[in-house]
Design brief:
The structure holds two protein chains of two kinds. By secondary structure, chain A is α/β, with parallel strands linked by helices. Helices cover 35% and strands 24% of the residues of chain A. The chains are: A alpha/beta, B alpha+beta. The complex binds adenosine-5'-diphosphate and magnesium ion. Residues 11, 13, 15, 17, 35, 37-43 of chain A line the site of adenosine-5'-diphosphate (ADP).
Chain lengths: 214, 329
């Protein structure tokens, strides 16, 4: 499903973030990416989401190289991915409902179906009843969960999460991890970057450790 | 919740989020329309300033155009029609005069010919006080038969008819003694109006560009304020078309409502003028009335202003997307 072939990423600043990565994920697999800060976890996820392009090697999704995707195909590809950012990137002038509905609106979904799916997503992340709240009135953890709901609402085939539990208390972090596991059970391929070793170990999933390039 | 342990093959997931492309398209349009309207509504101050600037820029060429149109109808007014008066020789009989009139009316340059016989002319003169007594002292009618020609107006301004040529031709007829042309002033006026038309065109183009810049700049500022939002939507798979859409509608509304406002301005200005113009026309014995903006012109103005709005916003968004293209990918 997701395949890295001798991938290296060097930022324009000269910083080498990833060096010669070879990695294969089966469809429906769930893996954790761990490693120290600066090891390249975020970069790895960004390459899958096409937020960055590799400087060497190639990333294949479903056997197709991402480098072969034209500019106009990128939006469509991104819609199949749910990306949970370290900073949730919410829109502060819109309600929780409108934030979560964004991917559905981009896809042109109708009102009633949108409402149904957003409610379901809110329910999944434990924010039922908060749909008319504005993000500024939410705690860091709640914001993070809105970000997760927004990433899930479109039922993506690939879920990428960059330190999704960084701002959450341990109990909530555990809950969120199980939510990802549930999505994985429904068939999504899940990649989670995390440096919470205890939590990762408890999940009993394949774990990939990145070493910082020197 | 339980930790999932079993590995499974990925089942077919429902990833298509829309039923059919048309309803998706429609839903996207509807939400862009709603969203762009809300943006205008929630920034009343900047919206009104922009609309006023657009309206003023549009009302100037519209008023100039109206002024011109009115001048043109004035010169085309049946009562004000230019004439050529042919004074026939004394020896010409009434029947000969009528025959000549009939022949002249066949000419392509001539719209119609009216015969004023010497008896009619005398009767007219009698009506004018002061002349009656003078005329009594004469034993014979000193007046000639007269033909009053109305040249075809459409030919007047064009190259195909030169007034000089026509007058030479008319003078050559044996019945004609003298002629008087009352057509030059119309020609001069038309010449001036042709220049005025050009001026209106240039002013329209300049002010149309002003509208373009005003809309473009308003949209550019709006984009500036919403950079973060655009970036986030791009990250979750928004196409350029999706990002562009609400801004384009925004441009349409600015153009359209600016056009409506300019129509209001011009209508008020016209109301202001109707009364004195009618008064003045009465003094000249004319039934001339100020013609305003008809339905067709209203639609043309609204269409033109909306199109300017679309182009202005398209340029602004296009420029932004083009610049950000490399930054995001
Ligand atoms: N946009 C960027 N420009 C330049 N250097 C970057 C950029 N993003 C990350 N880096 C560098 O690349 C390395 C890997 O970063 P990152 O992928 O964020 O690691 P992690 O997520 O594991 O902390 C770090 O040294 C970081 O400073
Ligand atoms: Mg990181």
């Amino acid at each position: 499903m997701i395949e890295f072939k001798q991938v290296s990423k060097k930022y324009p600043t000269g910083q080498l973030a990833l060096y010669n990565i070879n990695l294969t994920l089966e469809a429906g697999e769930m893996v954790f990416i761990t490693g120290h800060s600066g090891a390249g976890k975020s970069t790895l996820l960004k390459l899958v989401a096409m937020l960055e392009r590799p400087t060497k090697g190639e990333v294949l999704i479903g056997g197709r190289s991402l480098s072969k995707l034209g500019r106009s195909q990128i939006p469509n590809y991104r819609r199949r991915i749910g990306f949970i950012f370290q900073d949730p990137h919410l829109l502060y002038d819109r309600t929780v409902f409108d934030n979560i509905a964004l991917p559905l609106r981009i896809a042109g979904m109708g009102q009633s179906e949108t409402r149904r799916r957003v409610q379901a997503a809110l329910d999944k992340v434990g924010l039922t009843g908060r749909e008319n709240t504005f993000p500024l009135m939410l705690s860091a953890g709640e914001k993070q969960r809105v970000g997760i709901a927004r990433a899930m609402v479109n039922k993506p085939t690939i879920i990428l999460a960059d330190e999704p539990t960084g701002n959450l208390d341990p109990e909530l972090a555990q809950d969120i991890m199980f939510t990802f596991a549930q999505f994985n059970e429904l068939g999504a391929t899940v990649m989670i970057a995390s440096h919470d070793h205890a939590l990762v170990e408890r999940m009993k999933k394949r774990t990939i450790v990145l070493q910082k390039v020197d | 919740m339980t930790t999932p342990t079993n590995k499974k093959v990925a089942p077919k997931r429902n990833t298509s989020t829309t039923a059919n492309p048309f309803s998706a398209w429609w839903n996207q349009q509807a939400s862009a329309i709603k969203f762009s309207m809300e943006r205008l509504w929630f920034n009343p101050a900047s919206t009104w300033i922009t609309l006023a600037a657009i309206a003023i820029a549009l009302s100037l060429p519209t008023s100039l155009h109206l002024l011109l149109k009115n001048m043109q109808t004035l010169t085309a007014d049946k009562r004000e029609v230019p004439t050529i008066t042919l004074f026939l020789k004394q020896s010409v009989s009434e029947q000969q005069a009528k025959d000549r009139a009939e022949l002249l009316s066949e000419l392509p340059e001539i719209d119609n010919v009216r015969v004023v016989t010497r008896e009619e002319a005398l009767a007219d003169f009698r009506k004018i006080t002061g002349f009656a007594q003078t005329l009594e002292t004469l034993d014979a009618n000193p007046l000639p038969h007269v033909l009053i020609l109305t040249p075809r107006l459409s030919l007047l301004g064009g190259e195909d008819m030169d007034v000089e040529d026509l007058s030479k031709k008319l003078k050559a007829y044996s019945e004609v003694d003298d002629l008087q042309i009352d057509v030059e002033w119309v020609q001069r006026l038309r010449g001036i109006l042709r220049i005025a038309e050009r001026i209106v065109l240039v002013v329209s183009i300049l002010l149309g560009m002003t509208v373009l810049l005003v809309v473009g700049n308003t949209i550019r500022l709006d984009i500036e304020n919403r950079k973060e939002e655009i970036r986030v939507t791009q990250l979750i798979g928004a196409t350029n078309a999706y990002i562009r859409r609400p801004f384009i509608y925004n441009g349409i509304w600015l153009g359209l409502f600016g056009g409506v406002l300019s129509l209001v301005i011009v209508h008020v200005a016209l109301l202001f003028l109707v009364e004195p113009v009618t008064q003045l026309a009465k003094l000249y014995g004319s039934t001339f009335t100020l013609s305003g903006i008809d339905v067709l012109m209203t639609l043309q103005i609204l269409l033109a202003s909306s199109v300017l709005g679309v182009i202005g916003s398209w340029l602004a968004v296009g420029r932004y997307l083009w610049q950000s293209d490399d930054a995001i990918k």
